[in-house]
Each structure stands twice: as structure tokens, then as C-alpha cells.
Amino acid sequence: MSVLPVFKVGHPVIRQVAEDLTPDELRSDATQRLIDDMTETMRSRDGVGIAAPQVGVSKRIAVLEYRQNLRYPGHADIPLMVVLNARVMELGEETVDAWEGCLSVDNLRGVVTRSTKVVVDALDREGQPQPLAADGFLAVILQHEIDHLDGKVFLDRMKDLSTLTQLEEWYAYWDGRRPVDPAAKDPIGTSGIDHVGLVARDLEASRAWFVDLFGMREHSRSSNFVCLRVNEQYVFLLDEEATRAREGPNPRTALAHLALRVTREEFDRALETLAAKGIAIDEGPRQRGAGRSIYFKDPSGNQIELHHP
Q: Mapping DSSP to helix (H, G, I), strand (E, B) and coil, where does residue 84 land?
């Protein structure tokens, strides 16, 4: 599998209505390889979905998957889904306002209104009918990706552009919150989450450890958290005492496991640093063409997974 370049808004392919796959195209090695490469590309960017126009192919292909990550915290896992020739057949009346970003719209987030339920007509990667009735976060992802197939991006769905925010300002000022009443009904289940991250027994020592090991830079901080960045990935370190004492409508959510995707060079540099520090590592199972993973503990006992494709 290969990581493909992601085409950005402004490129004509992003605004084209994608074409259906013919039966012959669907069964072709080229299409099946494209699906695998799109999956690897999505995972390498910590995305939850990607559509073929985003990699320069104007065909109705999308892949979706959600595994707990710091870009979109607080949802149940969604196994890998491949949807071909997908079209929205029905939208539920109930809606939710939620933050969205996009791999084709760099460094921006905004609040988008989406239906909480959707019915989709699609095929799976073998060409078999795959009718989908989805709700919650999966319904939102499906609407976002099918928009791409119809030549739209999340910016087109924003009712109020005052929430359009650069990603750095979003982390610094919005702090992961949405400008809605925290007590309002939230069928997706993410209202009121301030931070999701690793609890640190010693905040400054943990910050120095991550900076030294991964070459991270400090992005933002307060008295009881530090946000670090490597590539396009953000890591929140949460002060242990402040997190335990947190009460009210905006609790902090602690992770015990953090997965980071890095380049081969960054991976090798981290291996050297781990060896120099005498930190024990466990090697993940190797599969041909699937890259390499290692597992180890941070100073606070959290498990860290480091992976390069």
C-alpha cells in the first residue's frame, strides 16, 4: 500500500461530481489497489474518511474508519468501510452542530449542521449491494464523504462562517469546545469535552520526554495541560492532579494508549533515543508491506505505539 498525495480545495477535481464505477472498473486491479492506497493515506493522516476525488480520481469511491485518536475524540470505533457509487437516499429530520475539518481544506475547522441519521445506497468493494442506515458519528462521516463525491466540501455546509477557525487557533482558543449550550442534547456524544489525552504525573517531565524522543514542538499550554505537535498530529498531556479534580460539564477524558504515525526517519531516530535511554520496547507483528510498529511506556506508564508505514 502507498500513501497518496491529497488534493486540496481549489484543484478542479475537488469540485467535480464524481462518476460511478462500471462493473469492469470495480473489479479491476487498479481500483482495488486504489482502495488500499486510499485506506493507507487516510490512516497516515489520522483521518476518519477519504474520497477518491481527494487523491485526484473523480470516481465514486470512499473509505471510512474510526479508531480513537486525538483529532476526533470520544466516539465508538467504526471498522473499515468501503463504499462505492454511494448516494444519500434519505436524511433524518433531527440535526446536530459539530466541528468538522478536512484533509483537502488544510488547517481549518468549522461548525457544520448535519442530520443525525442517514440512509445511503452503495456497493461494497466486491460490488455487492450495501444499503446503509447510519446514525451518530457514522452518519456525519458518510454525509461528509458523499459530499466530496458530489463536488462539495464542509465549507459549503456551514450556516455561520463566524465559527470558521484556523486549526492552531481552534486548539488555543476554542479548546475543542463547540459554541453551543453544553446542556443541549448531543446525539453524537462529544459536547463538553475539553481535552482528550495522556495523564502525566509530572507535566514538565513528560513534555521534555516527548520533545526529546519525537522532536515534537510545544503548540499551546495552560497551567494544567500541554499540547504538543508532530507532523499533523497533536498530543495533549494532562496534569494528573488537575484531571482527577476536574468536575462540572466539561470533564477531561484520559487515554491509556496513544498511537503515533511517523516517517521512517523519525521512527529510526526514536529507536536510537529509546535504546540510549534504556527504555524497553515490544515489537509489533510484521506483515509484508504493512510497515512496522513498536510499543513502549512513557514516564507516566501510558502505552505508546509508534508506527511507520
A: strand
